Amino acid sequence: MRKIAILSTLTLFACGDKGDTGTGGTDDTGISALECDDDVCVLSGVITEDLTLTADTAWLLRGGVFVGDDINPTTLTVEPGTIVYGESSTDGMLVVRRNSQILANGAADSPIVFTSSKAPGSRARGDWGGLILNGNAPINVCAGDGEACEAYGEGGTGWYGGDDPTDSSGTLSYVRVEFAGTLISPDNELNGIAFQAVGSGTTIDNIHVHMNADDGVEFFGGTAQATHVIVTGAGDDSLDWTDGWQGSAEYVVLQQYADAGDNGIEADNNGEDNSLEPRSNPSLSKLTIIGVADSETSDLGILLREGTAVSIDDAVVVDFNEGCLDVDHADTYAQFDAGQLQLSNVTLSCATAFYDDGDEDDNADTVQAVFDAGSGNEIATITLDGFDSQGNGGAVDGDDWTTWTEYPEN
Questions:
Q1: d(Cα 214, Cα 127) in Å, to the nearest integer?
Q2: pLDDT tens per residue across span 86-107
Q3: Which residues face 176 on adjacent strands?
Q4: In whole angstroms, how large is the CA radius of gyration of the chain?
């Protein structure tokens, strides 16, 4: 069969006995198309039988690759050290559908990497789609009809949502996703990792999204709980949530680059109806959020809006240009009044601490009132050298757990 030409600068490995189905049809692995030659195995279409991606093989995502049929369980296992390439010319992406799982258990010395099919030196944000997990946990986009709520994901990423808060989409551990975030259409870009109605039974530990064109990590509802999260160089927001996320994130590093970026955290309940239930109300702790002072990017360190509730404890926010903290919309302030929006042990170090949008109800004074109501909050002058918080608290205070990963420029 013809050779598949990608990354000629890399040494790629043989596929072994995984079979060759040509350019169409379905082989005995339940993949709509699996092409292998001496260099690479190409995945496309729908995977409906359990499959393992091995570290001795280079894997290429051609177009949208879907794990499962949204009904029957299918497990995709990814070995430590495996590299999976998203094909740039076809907007390759990997979607784990509801009732299926990904078991991506990397290790500190052999992480799993999802990256661009372009050669190093030519890679950039938006080269390929990204990684999407769809679960059965609750979301709020259709609350009030008395039935389990579901929604269809951006970029054709499939249905998500249900009534099982403990649902499991599998495991992501020591996984890096880089140079992703394809622009599907205006205002419709893919995130580095999208957790869409993902449940608390999912293990998310040591993940890194690097140089994504849109948001780094976004939670669309669900109850997912993440720990040891790194987002670097996102083209839009680093961490985003909406539609009723009620999970948690602990040990979080968000660092913007000078050439692109918006907010460190952008947090919503629901943009159409700020009061919908279940309300976004995650618990966040041990955060380091780094902007780029005097750049044209790095707008707001933390933006809480559209009715979200939240608990944030032990955070350092530095070098954002519009402000370190902003709180918008009446339903968001209602959560503060009800004791459901709490900030504690938060240190702000920006030229402007509190953003003032000139509105009578949400301006710098009202934002400051939220900040001042918490315990241990302070405004200080801090200079961070990368992730090293120099004993100032936050995600890596005296314990740099981020050393397992890498930060390629292109």
A1: 12
A2: 999 999 999 999 999 999 999 9
A3: 113, 208
A4: 21
- 134 with 100: CB under 8 angstroms? no
| pTM check: above 0.85 | yes
Name the β-bridge partners of 346: 315
| Helix pair 330-337, 364-372: axis angle to 10 deg | 20
- As a whole number of angstroms, the distance between CA 80 and CA 173 comes to 9
Amino acid at 409: E
Under 8 Å CB-to-CB from 333, ≥6 apart: which residues?
Answer: 327, 341, 361, 362, 366, 370
Helix, strand, coil abundance in the chain, percent, nearest 5: 5, 40, 55
Strand partners, 239: 217, 265
Cite the DSSP H helix spans in 344-393: 364-372
Q: What is the largest CA-CA distance in the chain?
A: 68
Residue 202 CB-density burial (10 A; 0-12 exposed, 13-18 middle, 19+ buried): buried
Burial (CB < 10 A; 0-12, 13-18, 19+), residue 186, is: exposed
